[in-house]
Each structure stands twice: as C-alpha cells, then as structure tokens.
Amino acid sequence: MTRNAPAVRLEGITKRFGDVVANDEVDFTLESGSIHALLGENGSGKTTLMSVLYGLYDQNSGTIHVDGEERTFESPRDAMDAGIGMIHQHFQLVKPMTVLQNVILGHEPTEGGTVDEASARADIEEICERYGFDVDRHLDTPVEDLDLGAQQRVEIVKSLYRGAEILILDEPTAVLTPQEVDGLMEVMNDLREDGRSLIFISHKLDEALEIADDITVLRDGKAVGTVPAAETTEQDLARMMVGREVLFDRLEREPGTGDPVLEVEGLRMPGDRGREQVEGVDLTVREGEVLGIAGVQGNGQSELIEGITGLRRPSGGTVRLSGTDITDRSRRDRIEDGIAYIPEDRQTEGLVQEYTLQRNALLGNQTIEPYAENGILNWGAVDEHAADVIEEYDVQPPNPEANAESLSGGNQQKFIVGREIGHDPDVLVASHPTRGVDIGSIEFIHKRLMELRDEGVGILMVSSKLEEIQKLSDRVAVMYEGEFIDVVDPETVTESELGLLMAGQTLAEGSDDADDETSADVDGGVSS
Amino acid sequence: MSGSEYLDAARLRLGGITLVVLAVLAAVLALGFDVDLSRLITWGFVTRSLEMATPIALAAIGGLYAEKSGVFNIGLEGFMIIGAFTTAGTMFALGGTSPTQGHVWAAILVAVAVTTLLTVIFAVLLIRYKADQIVAGLAVWFIGLGFAPFAAALIWGSRSSPGLTNINELALGQSPLVFLTIVLVGVAWVFLYRTRYGYWVQAAGENPEALDTAGVDVNRVRYATVIFSGAMAGLGGAVLLAHAGNFVGTGSTMVDGRGWIAIVAYLFGNYNPVGAAAAALLFGALDMLNVQFQTVGIEVSARLVNLLPYVAVLVVLTIYGKTRIPAVVGEPYETEE
Amino acid sequence: MSGSGPDSNGGALDALAARLLDASVLERVGIAIASTAMALLIGFVIAAAAGYDSIRFANQLLVGAFGSERAIARTLRSTTIFVMTGVAVAVAFRAGVFNIGVQGQFVVGGFSTVISIIWLGAFVPSGTVGGIVLMLFGTVVGVVAGGLYGALPGVMKAYGDANEIITTIMLNFIATGFVGWLVAGPFGAPEATATRTRRLPESVELPQAVFGDPNLSIVGILLMLGVVALVAAVMTRTRFGYDMVTSGYQDTAATYSGVDAKRMVISTMALSGMVAGLTGALFVIMIQGYYTDPSGIGNYGFDAIAVSLLAANNPVGVLPAGLLFGGLESAGSHVQINSDIPVQLIDGIVGLVVLFVAAPELFRMFAARTGLGGDAE
C-alpha cells in the first residue's frame, strides 16, 4: 500500500495563552489511513494542539497542512469543510433532540420546505451499515436516553455524515466502560481500514499501544518524540510522558508509626452520572504519614476524595476520623473536625476569583475561631491570616487586596496551600497539590507538606505526577476503576511498575525487585 | 417519532386527571345542584372561550419560540398592551369612532408592524448588549403600562378609547381571527418540528455550541425568534382589541395579565405550540366558565378560578418536574475567541 | 485545556451575577446616572412631541419630588417602601437567587399584618401601649408570613428543581389574586363602599415625622435605615452573609467551603421574603391603615428589582436608587393634580429607566467607543 501525502502535517505550532505556553514548536504528522495517538498528561497541551487544527484557536506561529495543502482555519466550519471532524470530550449533542436530528443538525436535507427525514435516514443507515454501528436502531430516541458510549457513536456518525475524512477523538475512552472501550477500538479499526485518518488523544498507554500506528508524546507543551507503536513499550512511553524533572531526591523522614487518624472502610461512591465510581475502598492514614494515591485520572480518585472531605454522599461504607465515625457529617462539620483540603480545581473551588485574597482567606474558615465567633466575622483576624499566608508562602504579588483572578496559577496554589495548612488540621487531603505550578513553587509546596507530616498530620495525596508520588509518599496506593489495585512501597517500586499498575495490570507475584522485562510481559490481567 | 414532539406520558395523565375532574364537577352540578348542563355549556360559551383563548395562544406561541431558542421574553404582556393600543389608535385614526372592517384589518397589520419594530430594539438590547432578560422584560411591561394609557389619554382625553368596532364573524359565529390563530398554531408546530429552522431553534436553546460547531449562527436564530415573539404578542393584543371593540387603559389595562398567562400556557404545554394552544383554550374556558356559572346562578369566585392556571404550573414544575426548560435560557451566547 | 478560559466556569446565573456585580462602584454610579438621564431625556422628548412644555414638565417633576415639605414627605414615604423592597431583592440577587417574587411576599406580609392586628385588636385594650403591642405583633406576623411565602419557592427550587424565576412570578399572581379574593369576600369590610378590609384600630399609629404628613413616620424612616444597615452588616460582617455572597459569586467555591447549597437557597429566599414582609407591614401600618385589592397597590416589588440593579445589588446603594424611584412616584402625584400631562408618562419613564438599567453593556460600549470609559478594558 503506497502512502499518499500525509493527511495532516503540523509544523512548529506555538500557542500561547497570555504568558502560558500551551504548545511550544510542536511538529506532528498524521499519515493518511492511519491512527496516530497523541499521548500526554493532563495539561501537556494535547487538546490545545487539536483545537488549533480544528479552527477553535489561532496558533501564534506554525503552519497547518491538510492533504498536502497549507490551510488556515478561522472556525470549525472551515475545518469541517476541509474534511476534519472532532469528537470533543464534552459531546456537542442537543440532548432532548433525537439521534437523527443531532446527526443532521446544520446539514439537514430538505424537501418542499420540511426536513427530508427519509433521505437522512437512508444516508445514516448506510454509514451505520458500513461500519457496523448500531446507531440506526435508535434514530428516533432522544440522545439523552442513550448511554455515553452510544452518544459517542452518534458523534462519530455525525462527523462521518458531514463527510469527515480525518477524525480527531479527544480522550474518547475517558467516559467509557471497559466494554465500551473495546467497542470503540473496533470502530476505530474499521474506520482506518476504510481509509480514514484518525487522531486519538489519550493519556492511557495501553490503549495507545493497542490501536495506534504511531504515537506522539507531548510533555509541558512540547513534542517529546514520535515513535511507531510497534517499536515501543509502555515503559518507554511512561518515561517519555512523565519525564525527569530535576528535583531533589526523597526527603529525609522517619517512618510514620502514629495512630490511625483517617480510616476508610468499604467506601462506595456514586459518580456524576449515577454509575458507581468507587467500588469499596479501604484505607488508613496514620499520624505523620503520607499516603499517596496514584492512578490515571478518572479512576475514582476525585469521588474518593469527595467522600472523605464531605462534598459527596457515599453510597456505602464508613469514614472515621481519629476513631469517630464521620460518614454522616457534613462538609462544614468535617472542616471543623480538622480535615483540610487542597482541592483539585483551584479556579472554581479553592478560590473565589473575584474576591480579594483577604476575603479568600476566610473561605472554609467561616466557622473557625478567631475568624468567626458565633457567626460574627472578625475581619481583622482574617486579614492578618491573609497577610501571614502571603508572607510565609511568598505569594506574588504580596498584596492582600489583589483579586484572586489576578494571580498566576502557582501563586494561587501557594495561597490555598497556606490557607489550608493554617487550619491546623489533623488530616490534610491534597488533590494534585502542584498541578500547573512552576518548579520553584513545587519545591516550596513539597517542603511544606513534609513539615506538616513531621508535625504529625496525616496526609492523603492524589497526584498524576509519579515523581511527586514517589518523592512524598510513605506508601503508594494505585487506583484503577474504583478500587485500589495494589499498595506499594515508594522506595522500591519503579516508575514502570507504577505505570503498569495504573494501566490495571498486577505485578508478577514475588517480584519485589521486578525487572522491566518480566513485568512488561504481564499482559491484560485486569484484577478486579 | 421523537418523544419531545408529543405530550409525554406524565402530561397525558395530567390532562386525563383534568378531564375526570371536569366530568365529576359536571356530574355534581347536574345531580347535586340540579343545574341544567345545557344551559351551562352553550355555543356562546364555546365562542367566548375561543375568543378568550386566541390572544393568549398567539402570544404563547411567540413566547415559546423565543424561550426554545434560549431567550426568555417576559415582556409579552407589555407587547400585547402596545399591540392592543396601536390597533385601537390606528382604527380611530382611519375611521374615527366608526371604523370599517377594512380599517380593522389595516389596524391589526399596523399593530403587528409597530410591535415588530419595537421588538427589534428589544432584541438588540438582549442579544447584542446582553441585557438582563428578566429586567428588560419587566421594563417592557412597565413601558406598555405607562405609555399606552398615556397615548390613549392624549388621543381620547381618557385612558380608554370610546367604542370603536369589533371584527365581524366569518363562519360558525366565529371571528376570522380565531381561524387565523388555528392556522398559525398548526404552522408553528410544523415549522418547529419539521423544518431545519425549527431544529436550529431547539438546538439554540439547548446546546448553542453544538449548533455553532454545525455552522449555524446562534444569535441570528435568536434574533429571529425574539422578533417573532414580539410580533406574535402584538398580534395577540390586536386580536384582543378586535374582539373587544374598544381600548381599556385603566388599571392593568384590557390585557390584564394575558401576557403572563401566555407564559403559563406554553409552560403548561411543554413548549409545544399545540399544547400551548390547548392550555390557552383551557384557561379561556375556565375564565368563561365563571361567567356561565353566574348566568346559571352558581356562586364561584372568578378570581379564585383564575388562579388555577398559576397553581397548576407550580404543581407541574415542582412535582411532575417534566416541564423542560431549555438548558441555556437567559444565557447570552458568545463565540470563542 | 480548551475549556479552561477565565469565564468558562459556572452556569447562566453565575455569568449573570458576575456581569452585574463586576462593575466598579464608579462605573455603576455612571451607569445609573446615564440610565436615568437617558430615560428622562426620552420622556421630555415625548412630552414635547405630544405638545407639552418639556421644561415645565421637568420643573414639575423636580417640584413634585422635592419642591415643598409636603412633596419631600411624599417622596420619603415612597422611598421607604422602594428602599426596603429593593433590599429584599438585593439580598436574593447577591446570593445568586433570582427572587422576582418580592411583590407577592410584600402583599402577603402586609395583608397578614392587617388581619393579625384586627384579630388581636379585639383582645387588647386601646391606648398607646395596646397599640404598640398590636403593631409589634402584626409586624412579626407580617415578617413571618413574607418569609414563609419567600421560602416556598426556595423549597421548590432546592427539592423540586423548579426554576425560581418562574415560580416566583406565578406566586406573585397567586398572592395578588388570593388576597384580592380575601379582601373582597371573607375579610371585606361590610361598611366600606370600596373593596377593602376593616381599618386598623385607632391605637395602631406611628409617630409622625417632622413634616406633619400623617402617612410618613420617623419610625418608618428609621426602620428603613435600620434594615439597610442590618442587611449590609449581615452581608459583610457575618458568616451567613459571607456564605450567601460567596454562593452568589461562585457556588462551587461556596460548596467547597462547607455551604449547603439547598439550605442556602431556602434561607436566602426566606430572608428576602422576610424583608419584603416587613416592608408590607410598614406599608399597612404607616401608610394604608387597611388592606385593599392588591392589584391596585402599586408595583413596588417589581420596581424593587430595578432599584436593586441600579444599586448593583448593594444594600447601601439601594438608598439613592430608592430615592430616585420615590421621587419619580411622588412627582407623579404632583403632576397628576397640577398639570394636564397624563401622569402615565412618568410610569413610562420609570419603565425606560428599568430598561436601561437592564443593559449596562449599552453604556459600556458607548463609553468605550467615545473614549469616555477611561481604561475600562
């Protein structure tokens, strides 16, 4: 089979948002009739790059070639006209409208003024037949009545109906069950065999290896490299994705042997869409101990944390704080009980963007003395607290009257960390404590967390950065599909072993010092 | 066929319950109070109910189009007042206190044109200048309540007009405007559920981004629906006046809450033009039933009976929870970058 | 990454609240003055077009609002009601809850006050002490009734997911209709020719203000100032206020900080309704002395929305905004008697003020284009 001009060629794409460089001179080539996986951690710039290709963003520099021709796309409409379709993470579907109506929206065939449903139906059925989709069986069902996998197929059919030859799938497996993932893989395969070209955005190594012809890894907005899938391993990819940031080594510590402060038993948590996301987790955090939770995003970590911090009601199990059952206590009760929380999303949860830092210093402290007494606020104490945090954590600019939104991400995060640690907690739950934070601030935050641990606070930390997990944790639990697949010692576990566990594969029995060769051979064995 | 097009099961149940209640009521009246039902349900009653329902149905259809596309037009009442007054004013200007049927029709057209023009300004404020839809809608009501009686006082020296004329019946004792409304209801239904533009209206209010990425200009769709809603409310006001024959500008004017009832009607009808028209008819009949009760000597408070629609909507919204408010109502749409 | 722009968080209400609250104080004052000036200007043009002397009309507005002791007393009287209903709206809007139902809560509160005072009046001796007892009792009943009537749509929103904008509009009509029926029927005064309840006992009377207007009391003015001060203090100095305002700005952050969103909606609506109910109580005790058909009582609760927005939902800012509306209403009474211009013109002008207040963006864009806006983006 001879290869034509590449379906897509991106050269030197740079995209900046303000001071943040989301894509830095990225080159990317999608061969015609192939599947190319774009791999990287959250925030590595995958979606931005594809949004540039799809006409959602204008690049600051660099060129786009489609089928060998240089193109500029002002809008998705232009990209669509050039045969590009994108299946977003958040489906672009009109929920109460039927599948048929959604597929043809904006491209409706008409007959005598009204929509010609019959001809649309025939066209869609033809597409479905060609790729073995079941979408045509639900053509008159409102989209909202379909499960997410089916909705995704509707999105794909929509792109095909509009004549897309090049399909971009943005984290398509993130919302799917394992069975649905298998189905999607088949569909992608069929599309490739039919000569279409696909870009598959993911952060899951095994999926990329399974389906892609080529794999490009992005890290911090840069393309680390492109490799043929046949010639690489999960270990190599994991190394490319995570990289090696030059940080100081594991910090000096004494193993935490204090009493248990946080005990979780058989915790089950519902997800946003009703499906259970945490399916029976047991964990214990002792005084002066860091329990790190590693795992690919979306395996139940967020829900687990919400169950512990009181933001979401569990569907089963118990949570105990220093021996007291707090399962039925509210979020506010738990704050007062001594659970501090560095939230996953500092923009929407951790700070009120339009508040000054002073007013933000009160967030979560509303019922805690000296900031409030009997419901009356003591702004003097709050302002002092804000000033202290700003000084101690070197928040820039050091202006307590600055609005939170005017601060950089790193400084916002430092402020939140300072505020939460200032609660004098018994337990600190830290979710991605250094996501999107500059290196200087990362080290600073890490040091603070260690100091806190040494003071005897129990810390539960979720992070997608493996080196962070390994550096800070006393024990590491790996979460996969709502369960702890294993708990390992960060001193001895290797990055590649963590990568395997995160992909749902158990480590070979007894291979404490597992060398890379053997563990890589363990395949497919998803424990449950 | 798609579920959203037809009244869903819960709503059918609700409708069924309403019918049962009415039947029981009729039985109680006939047996318990020895009321002659044939005196209660007369052809005149049907005619008056239809007349009562038409202005509500027209405004409701306009309002539901706007809201379906994501813009809450709560100025319907104000536009109806302006429509009614403009009709009266034009009639008077053309034919004094004895306008001809031609004048009536011309006045209706002028009224629609005037309200359409005013709604264009309203739409620009809402869509281009992202005005608060609730407050701007209330403002339209206040403006109607203020300027229509003001202008009436200028023309006639009083807030109400002298007797002008009302429209002649066409057939079966019904005004041609009743037939016009029935036709418009049908057209509105077909347009909304059977044409591409109707699809766009629905998508604009549910997921404008999906519509945008499909290459359709969301705000253009919204301009069209908002302007249409004003025109329909204006027509509703004009029809009200053409049936009444004179303008009343005292108190809450002759429109007297019909614009608000129109909103209730389309909520009750789950944004379906046919459902909204049916609800309007129900409310019109309810209103007229009061009159019928009086003529046969039953004491029921008209005011209480007239509250039923509002209570019913609260029940539907809270307990049935099935009235589906379009997802992004009230949210201005801004394209990326 | 693509969705993480600065304004991608939150839904319609957040965006709306953010836009309304974003404006700096100076910009807000500018927009308020521009809205009023523009509306008045259009009013004058219309008056001129209708053949009246606009200068004279403008003069009459001024005289009617502030030209004499009587006018000032009349202005202050309406101002109290506008300010207090405005505060009721501001409370809810600041919390991101769109209470359009202040009118209904105002009516229910006022009517309950009248009925409870008349009922208790039969057991309490007349005289000053008795009067004070009756007024206190009636006011408490009014506050509770208004609060409950406000909490109802709050409950519907929290537990039935019913949009509060629609439910509160419906509850306005239900309040007006139902109270109207009660006033005409079960609670109608048999001796009165008009549709109204019996009068409040003679002992129910507030001390007059300096102007000798029987319908304006210093107590009313103090109550208004007290409510403004209290609500301002609650919003800025208490935990509840912080929870409430934080919910209005960013509900996700409020939840993170331990606010129970459902309870917050209900208590916000209840507080808003309580202020509206209190206003209703003051209205009947100070001004009306009985209850009439609420459809003729005035649109205080609707105008209050404009008052609140004019003040950027700031309880202190509601004072000047309420004064503007009070002045316009007072001028209306003057114009009605002393001029041949149909007084409805003023209602229309109020409508225009409201319209312009709804669209601050209009003035922002205008200012930006003409370079008047300074460095506002």
From TrEMBL, chain A:
Main location group: membrane
Domain ABC transporter: 8-245, 262-506
Domain of life: Archaea
Gene3D superfamilies: P-loop containing nucleotide triphosphate hydrolases (3.40.50.300)
Entry keyword ATP-binding: yes
Protein's membrane topology: Peripheral membrane protein
GO cellular component, one term: plasma membrane
Pfam family for this entry, one: ABC_tran
Acidic residues bias spans: 510-520
Keywords annotated in UniProt: ATP-binding, Cell membrane, Membrane, Nucleotide-binding, Repeat, Translocase, Transport
Subcellular location: Cell membrane
Entry protein name: Nucleoside ABC transporter ATP-binding protein
Organism: Halorubrum cibi
UniProtKB/TrEMBL annotation, chain B:
Annotated Gene Ontology cellular component terms: plasma membrane
Predominant localisation class: membrane
Membrane spanning residue stretches: 12-33, 45-66, 78-98, 104-127, 134-156, 176-193, 226-248, 260-283, 304-321
Pfam families (alphabetical): BPD_transp_2 (PF02653)
Membrane topology: Multi-pass membrane protein
Subcellular location: Cell membrane
GO molecular function: transmembrane transporter activity
Keyword Cell division annotated: no
UniProt keyword annotations, A-Z: Cell membrane, Membrane, Transmembrane, Transmembrane helix
PANTHER family assigned to the protein according to its UniProt record, in alphabetical order: GUANOSINE ABC TRANSPORTER PERMEASE PROTEIN NUPQ, SUGAR ABC TRANSPORTER INTEGRAL MEMBRANE PROTEIN-RELATED
Protein name, entry field: Nucleoside ABC transporter membrane protein
Taxonomy of the source species: Archaea, Methanobacteriati, Methanobacteriota, Stenosarchaea group, Halobacteria
Automatic annotation (TrEMBL), chain C:
Domain of life, source organism: Archaea
UniProt topology in membrane: Multi-pass membrane protein
Alphabetical UniProt keywords: Cell membrane, Membrane, Transmembrane, Transmembrane helix
Location(s), subcellular: Cell membrane
InterPro entries in UniProt: ABC_transp_permease
Signal peptide, first to last residue: none
GO CC annotation terms, alphabetical: plasma membrane
Transmembrane regions: 29-52, 72-93, 105-124, 130-152, 164-184, 216-235, 270-291, 341-359
Protein name: Nucleoside ABC transporter membrane protein
Lineage: Archaea, Methanobacteriati, Methanobacteriota, Stenosarchaea group, Halobacteria
GO molecular-function terms, A-Z: transmembrane transporter activity
Major localisation: membrane
